[in-house]
């Protein structure tokens, strides 16, 4: 069913998405069994969900600590200029910093929220001082260091 420009998914489609979020490597046979339909209709639905952009791709959950990137910090960034040209310059530059794993423009008292992964606080301090603070139009940053991750399935 269409509702405006979006398609409303039925319970089976929603269940397929829920199962795929839990285990994207599940076989179509097992997926079909879990959602209560036969294999061919399940595969057709899965392909449609991919084609229509509900499922964008598949990824692996990574043990960042083993890769020396277990330290997480969130950084609030305030920029001095919020005109499109300045924001585009910031956006282009922040994408080049490999330690920044997420960057969100915010509707808040600050402009951007970054998720930064490093080996430890010492490495983070270097990334902040040499890379993040040097981004175009950065006027202020505030850091929030993660002490313990309680919920993070790595997929959202």
From TrEMBL:
GO molecular function, one term: sequence-specific DNA binding
Database matches in InterPro entries: ArsR-like_HTH, AsnC-type_HTH_dom, Cro/C1-type_HTH, Dimeric_a/b-barrel, Tscrpt_reg_AsnC-like, Tscrpt_reg_AsnC/Lrp_C, Tscrpt_reg_HTH_AsnC-type_CS, WH-like_DNA-bd_sf
Keywords for this protein: Activator, DNA-binding, Transcription, Transcription regulation
GO annotation, biological process: regulation of DNA-templated transcription; response to amino acid
Chain ranges of the HTH asnC-type domain: 9-72
SMART domains assigned to the protein according to its UniProt record, in alphabetical order: HTH_ASNC (SM00344)
Limits of the HTH cro/C1-type domain: 17-40
Pfam hit, one: AsnC_trans_reg
GO CC, any one term: cytosol
Keyword Oxidoreductase (UniProt): no
Lineage top rank: taxon: Bacteria
PANTHER family, per database record: LEUCINE-RESPONSIVE REGULATORY PROTEIN
This protein's name: Lrp/AsnC ligand binding domain-containing protein
Organism: Gimibacter soli
């Amino acid at each position: 069913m269409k509702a405006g420009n979006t398609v409303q998914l039925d319970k089976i489609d929603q269940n397929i998405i829920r199962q795929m979020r839990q285990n994207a490597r599940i076989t179509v046979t097992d997926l079909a069994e879990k959602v209560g339909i036969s294999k061919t209709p399940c595969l057709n639905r899965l392909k449609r969900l991919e084609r229509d952009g509900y499922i964008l791709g598949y990824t692996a959950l990574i043990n960042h600590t083993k890769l020396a990137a277990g330290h997480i910090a969130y950084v609030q960034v305030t920029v001095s200029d919020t005109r499109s040209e300045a924001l585009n310059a910031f956006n282009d530059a922040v994408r080049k910093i490999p330690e920044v794993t997420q960057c969100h423009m915010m509707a808040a008292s600050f402009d951007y929220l970054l998720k930064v992964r490093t080996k430890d606080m010492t490495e983070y301090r270097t990334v902040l001082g040499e890379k993040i603070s040097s981004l175009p139009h950065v006027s202020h940053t505030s850091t929030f260091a993660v002490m313990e991750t309680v919920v993070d399935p790595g997929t959202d």
